[in-house]
Amino acid sequence: MDPNRATTHAPSPAGAAPAGAGLLTEIAADLAAGGDLRALLDRFLDPIVRLAGARAGAVRVLSDADERLRIVSDIGLPGSVSGAEESVDRHCGYCGEAADAQRVVWASDLSRCSAQAHAAWFGHDCHRMLVVPLQHRGRMLGVYNLFFDGDAEPAPDVAALLKTVGELLGLALHTARLEAENLRATVMHERQAMAAEVHDSIAQTLTYVKMRLPLLQDAVLGHDEERALKYLGDVRDAAGEAHAHLREIVTHYRTRLDPRGLAPALDALAARFPQRTGIELAFANHAPGLHLPANLESDVFHIAQEALANIERHSGAKHAWLTVEPTPSGIELLVEDDGSGPGRPADDAAHYGIGIMSERALRLGGELSVAPRPGGGTRVRLAFPAAAAAAR
């Protein structure tokens, strides 16, 4: 504590402790529910400011890219101050001190802030500042500031609550970064997988067409109608295959995997299916804690998606079942229906869809089978080893 400044504590407002406890409960509940981080910060900054008896507040997030603290939410700050303070070096002034030392910092000499913002607000309307670090497991993620117009500071019980709020908001920032990283990894994997599938299917088919066209040309110029018709048929069939491949790729990749992971993605898929198709679907996930690397989660999701799409297109079913089960050796995903049962694929799209599902199963180190379901209909079974299901 600075020996040159007053250390008077403001009396705790009536009901401050219960209100603070309620605020912590609300923040924890919102964290558990997930959602938009900016909305979370905007919602809770005002009650934090009122709880502390401050006149203004701001939340700054540390950018990994350029090591700067950026204001992402503020209340009560004059526009000129928030604009000048929008982005500062992570080592700047008291904010930098709190970030570097990872501790709460009180400040009464705000001349450095006034010089940084080129504003008389510091020292005139704002006399004291509290900086609380936002961190999670030793990783610095940002700070939040509370600005006071008097000499009193919050009572110890309120100060302890403010520190706990910083820890919870640090957890929120950590969770948001994990989701963003997972989303980036998922998008990169899907781009790579799409490029691979275009190369392995459409590019190879078009290469075949390119090889057949000179033969077709020679047959036409040589007035060899039989060979010309044969090569024309080859080109037509190959074009149909390329179109089927393209339709399959578009079907798989137009639905992005939920950035929160496989379980929420399957929940959303199961919720949409009966609404879109009119087919009743029972979904049971007996491995809700399953975590896979982002690329493998995408493979599992798209296998389930394609299997359900085949039910919609070909089965004539009234009921379907989607089940995720842990097994002694790994994980089993079952997609079943009470339709007409497995047979020869009704069109090329279904044939190539099964092929792509099998390729995805191989990437998981597992196997895919399509067989009759006991009691009628079809059962698609994906089984992959526990080694693939290692925690991220």
Report on this structure:
The chain is of the alpha+beta class and 392 residues long. Helices cover 53% and strands 20% of the residues. The protein is built from eleven helices and eleven strands. The chain has helices spanning 16-33, 37-52, 79-84, 93-101, 111-117, 121-124, 156-221, 225-253, 262-277, 294-315, 348-363, and strands at 56-62, 68-75, 87-89, 105-107, 128-136, 139-148, 280-285, 319-327, 330-337, 367-372, 378-385. Strands 3-2-1-6-5-4 form a six-stranded antiparallel beta sheet, with helices on both faces.
Produce the secondary structure layout:
Elements: H1 16-33, H2 37-52, E1 56-62, E2 68-75, H3 79-84, E3 87-89, H4 93-101, E4 105-107, H5 111-117, H6 121-124, E5 128-136, E6 139-148, H7 156-221, H8 225-253, H9 262-277, E7 280-285, H10 294-315, E8 319-327, E9 330-337, H11 348-363, E10 367-372, E11 378-385
Parallel strand pairs: 7-8
Antiparallel strand pairs: 1-2, 1-6, 2-3, 4-5, 5-6, 8-9, 9-11, 10-11
Q: Which H/E pattern describes the elements?
A: HHEEHEHEHHEEHHHEHEEHEE
Strand order of the largest sheet: 3-2-1-6-5-4
Mean pLDDT: 79
Number of separate strands: 11
What is the distance, rounded to the nearest whole angstrom, between the alpha carbons of the first and last residues? 42 Å
Question: Helicity level, as a percent range?
Answer: 40-55%
How big is the Rg? 30 Å
Biggest sheet, open or closed, and with what strands and sense?
6 strands, antiparallel
Overall 3D form: elongated
Count up the helices: 11
- Overall structural class, as computed from helix and strand content, comes to alpha+beta
Unreliable segments (pLDDT under 50, ≥5 consecutive)? Answer: 1-15
Strand residue percentage: 15-25%
